């Protein structure tokens, strides 16, 4: 559409627009309405602010020409209430005063333009066309802004989906590494999944929010990924480890963090994995953290990991019962274990309060 065609189209739309004339003086109201109808506008009239609001509640107008001074509700009081009903309404005020202070009050009150009484009809037409043109521009701007917001929201959703898919892929690869490592040792099979479920159950028992519970569970699934870098002869050794072998095993935390390093969006999950061998007495590794310096996820994983180790079969011993394992771990409170975490774990085990996750039912 050319500029000339666009102007003609806008003029045609303006000429067919629906107008509301609000004027308490009947002669002015009737003359103005008759003139505007002759210009092709659909015109309704109101003799007061209240009558105008009744029209606005049941009909949509393109513009409202409104007198400032009216008995009861004056024009300045009417405009904000009218715009609250229809934010697209183009408002032109009719005033007997022509000074800067009056103009400022009218425009700041929501009017697009004003006409000074007594007015000439060509002035009314020009003011009306300006207001309707501005109304059209405002509508187009809002439409454009809405389209931009929708596009930004759609692109943001796409990026979030891509990031989630990437995260799930890398997590899946990491879990595959864990399962591959566990599959080589009959005594380790399912260890990470069991630790994850117990850790999440402990977190839930502690009253942590659902997002933290899920982060704890994910950390449990990934906490031993670094074991893939431990020599099998050490990993499967049935007897006590030498100092060198133990140092090598402890290195699995560093290896795991190197594998998970690209997953920065996992946030606290990385800290939970990094801290799962720290002890509340400060004698753990790799950083020797103590007490509350250890993330809550790290303290929970330490407890779940220790419990699963005791209740799992090993080449050199039979598995301990849950009751005996809890009794044994009670002596580790204040050393390996956080007291609150231990109490929560004890309740989970004794009350059978383990959480069930849908994705585990199909794994």
How would you characterize this protein structure?
With 363 residues, the protein is an alpha/beta fold. It has 2 domains: 3-147, Response regulator (Rossmann fold, 3-Layer(aba) Sandwich); 184-361, Hypothetical protein af1432 (Orthogonal Bundle). It has 16 helices and 5 strands. It has helices at residues 3-15, 26-38, 49-58, 75-85, 100-108, 121-183, 191-205, 210-222, 232-235, 243-250, 252-260, 268-274, 296-311, 322-330, 339-351, 358-361, and strands spanning 18-22, 42-46, 63-67, 90-95, 113-116. Strands 2-1-3-4-5 form a 5-stranded parallel beta sheet, with helices on both faces. Helix 4 links the parallel strand 3 and strand 4 (90-95). The longest helix is centred in the middle third of the chain and has 63 residues, at 121-183. It is rod-shaped.
Give the strand line-up of the largest sheet: 2-1-3-4-5
Low-confidence stretches: 1-15
Name of the CATH class of the largest domain: Mainly Alpha
Distance from first to last alpha carbon: 61 Å
Summarize the structure.
This protein is α/β, with parallel strands linked by helices.
Fold blueprint:
Layout: H1 3-15, E1 18-22, H2 26-38, E2 42-46, H3 49-58, E3 63-67, H4 75-85, E4 90-95, H5 100-108, E5 113-116, H6 121-183, H7 191-205, H8 210-222, H9 232-235, H10 243-250, H11 252-260, H12 268-274, H13 296-311, H14 322-330, H15 339-351, H16 358-361
Parallel strand pairs: 1-2, 1-3, 3-4, 4-5
Record keyword descriptors for this entry.
363 residues, alpha/beta, Rossmann fold, Hypothetical protein af1432, five-stranded parallel sheet, disordered N terminus
